Amino acid sequence: MSKTNTLTTAKGERIAIVAGLRTPFAKQATAFHGVPAVDLGKMVVNELLQKHEVDPTIIDQLVFGQVVQMPEAPNIAREIVLGTGMNVHTDAYSVSRACATSFQSTANVAESIMAGISDVGIAGGADSSSVAPVGVSKKLARTLVDLTKAKTAGQKFGLIRQLGLKDLLPVSPAVAEYSTGISMGQTAEQMAKTYQISRADQDELAHRSHTLAAKNWKEGNLAGEVMAAHPEPHKTFIDQDNCFRENSTLEGYAKLRPVFDRKHGSVTAANSTPLTDGGAAVLMMREGRAKELGYKPLGYIKSFAFAAIDVWQDMLMGPSHATPLALKRAGMELADLDLIEMHEAFAAQALANMKMFASDKFAKEHLSHLRNKAIGEIDMSKFNVMGGSIAYGHPFAATGARLITQTLNELNRRGGGVGLTTACAAGGLGAAMILETD
């Protein structure tokens, strides 16, 4: 491998990931039922600080995100600062890049360190699918505003009379793209058909994911990066994900019917990620500052890249667009990587991206500004070696930080190396981040 590139400050110091931690990931309406994302965020950041004996007042910046927004707490990052004992003057702001949100927050903290704005920062994300904002119809919302302006009882009664029963019904959070009306599951079905991903292959990947996750939990490989959570009213605790199947059998997957295209589809609940609650965070420092404080970093950021593609067709191909750019910026090829961690939103999406990594035709048609040859075929002995999101679950804003922490810990268990983390995201977005260990 020729000389590679690594992100550094102006003085040549690398951007260190000192530590990472997450809550257990819990299926919707189970262990974290009723726990809002802001509390999950405070929970994991507070534990991260305590576990690694970090003085909260040394944190210069906290960047955090959530995808399912809470109207009553629109800046989750600031609420976390105020709820975890950090200096009240700590800079904090929130970001959202759909399923790549904590990749974005990590990139933002890295950029602040590179620019000399901060020395120590925390990045991450949290989401709750159990505490989702339930809205009202547009007509009711408009009427409620008009009622505040009405001056007489007659005017108010007239406004109320215009409402029908259907206008009073609650409106669930949208699951489809605002711009297209197409859901993630429908997009996964598109991709299965476009790239000829069979139902059998999807089920096999899902089975592999659950089997590897169960194996790594059993062997204790996740214990150090997953905290024990005691959600209110603190009568119970959870210290392990509850999404993965401990006794997954391939035959079991074939029994489920398709969800998004019931007649001709192949995407099922079993080969997709479940709705999940959880939070994750990473502690980041300028390399020299980490040494001054006596910390041995988990690893460092070599490069990162984001990409955007069309949203009407196969919009979850983001990893196939962001990864080549991250590799170019790192001065590396796919074969140079020791581990590859790809977010499994759906088995169809993951398999389609894996297939296009190896496609010269795809490279010529979509990556000509970067290269005209495929980045290469993925060595499955390097791919999602501990299982993926299909097994662990996917609290939207937390997944990026999970991937970063999990990859660095596994690289260190293997004696060091370089790993790719990558994810698709709603809106036709993609993220890729290359990490290294000493």
Walk me through this protein's architecture.
The chain is α/β, with parallel strands linked by helices and 438 residues long. The chain has a domain at 138-168. 34% of the residues lie in helices and 16% in strands. The protein has 14 helices and ten strands. It has helices spanning 37-51, 76-83, 101-114, 138-149, 153-161, 184-194, 199-218, 250-253, 287-292, 318-330, 347-357, 360-366, 389-392, 399-413, and strands spanning 15-22, 26-27, 61-65, 91-95, 120-127, 276-286, 299-308, 339-342, 418-425, 429-436. Strands 1, 2, 3, 4, 5, 6, 7, 8, 9 and 10 form a ten-stranded mixed sheet that branches. Helix 2 links the parallel strand 3 and strand 4. Helix 1 packs across helix 2, helix 3 crosses helix 14 (399-413) and helix 6 crosses helix 11 (347-357). The longest helix has 20 residues, at 199-218. It is globular and about 80 Å long. The two termini are 16 Å apart. The model has no long low-confidence stretch (mean pLDDT 97).
Key traits:
globular, ten-stranded mixed sheet, alpha/beta, 34% helix
Quickly describe the structure.
It is found in: Cytoplasm. With 438 residues, this protein is α/β, with parallel strands linked by helices.
